[in-house]
Amino acid sequence: VATRLAYGTALSRIGQTCDRVIGLDGDTKNSTFSIKLRDVKPDQFVECFIAEQNLVGVAIGCAARGRTIPFVSTFAAFLTRSFDQIRMGAISQTNCNFAGSHVGVSIGEDGPSQMALEDMAMFRSVIGSTVFYPSDAVSTERAVELAANTLGICYIRTGRPNQPVIYSPEECFCIGKGKVVRTAGPTGDHLTVVGGGITLTEALKAANILAAENINIRVIDPFTIKPIDAELLAKAVKETCNKVLTVEDHAPEGK
Where are the transmembrane segments (predicted)? Predict the structure, then answer.
């Protein structure tokens, strides 16, 4: 299940339970799956077309005085066009949620012009922001729920390709708390590997290959990039003899 599809499913679900939830899109609703909200709650959906600065401005206006809980969605690469509006929204203490899809080189055939490789750096720099990087359908749905109830600017990074479901529906997620997805115990791991989104899936594949060679690695899902679970990471690195590898689908600067 692609995390972008899980985003649309979660948005539709919370939109049906709370009429203050609205979706806004930049003419990418078929790809971000915000169309799932439009199909069940058309009065809670605003199509802003290919005008991302206006898209964000409308969302911030809708959020004024807590009138709505807006979720803005488009390709993550296109949100770079509206950084000024996002920044000013944060300065104005607005509560607005963003979902950027088609991130990283994993979008493949869509091409380099649509590969978001700067999005986490951009949103991490926003004052008071929260940055989610869910790795499967379950964690994506929890990210949407948490974002709807979190003050400030929230960003949810979703991907194009299908990914396996890692977590059970009962799994609990918290902002600033990561997950140890695989471990051989406090003294059994040779290396800590940190991955999010599609890179967590690839890290788990690598763990299976290495395990066949009697090499155990600890795989960590950070869930939120801002705030990061520094305590969990420090503990894992210490227990793996200060050996850590991050697997990323983002430019090296600013992530």
Answer: none
